[in-house]
Amino acid sequence: MTRKQRRLVLIGAAGTVLCLAAGLVLFALRDTIVFFYGPTEIAEKGVAPGTRMRLGGLVEKDSVVRGPGQRVVFSITDSRTAIKVSYDGLLPDLFREGQGVVTEGVFQGAGQFRADSVLAKHDETYMPREVADTLKKQGHWQPDAGTSAPQAAPTPQVTQ
């Protein structure tokens, strides 16, 4: 074998090993990838029961029901569709009706979602990008919602 042929074989073998490694990584990650959906997207796409996902939107007004222990049932809406979420555990301190949340869990079908975790916005101006994008698509985005700090008056310009 000539020097050129050895190089080509080495490059081909390295490419094959690299492709094999990438395939194994993707195969290993396929069960841990979690997609984000809004309530309307779930209804439109017909997501299969048992699918692990993230569900985000606004906590619907008058929907929070606390059960025995730490069980909480509430609805997440994007103003067109609502999905009932059940969660066992402590809710974040900033969780309340009308706030943006992202839940991660399993869609159970028929408008039911079983959450493993609930994430609420962490200050007055933050909202997860996926939730904000969904609300913008629906026409319900209020970029100044929740900000109560008064705007400073403009500084007058002095001319001489």
Automatic annotation (TrEMBL):
Residues 135-160 are annotated as: Disordered. Residues 29-160 are extracellular. Heme binds at residues 122, 126. The keyword Transmembrane helix applies. Residues 1-7 are cytoplasmic. It is a single-pass type II membrane protein. Pfam families: CcmE. One of its GO terms (cellular component) is plasma membrane. Keywords: Cell membrane, Cytochrome c-type biogenesis, Heme, Iron, Membrane, Metal-binding, Signal-anchor, Transmembrane, Transmembrane helix. InterPro entries: CcmE, CcmE-like_sf, NA-bd_OB-fold. Belongs to the CcmE/CycJ family. Heme chaperone required for the biogenesis of c-type cytochromes. Transiently binds heme delivered by CcmC and transfers the heme to apo-cytochromes in a process facilitated by CcmF and CcmH. This is Cytochrome c-type biogenesis protein CcmE. It comes from Bosea vaviloviae.
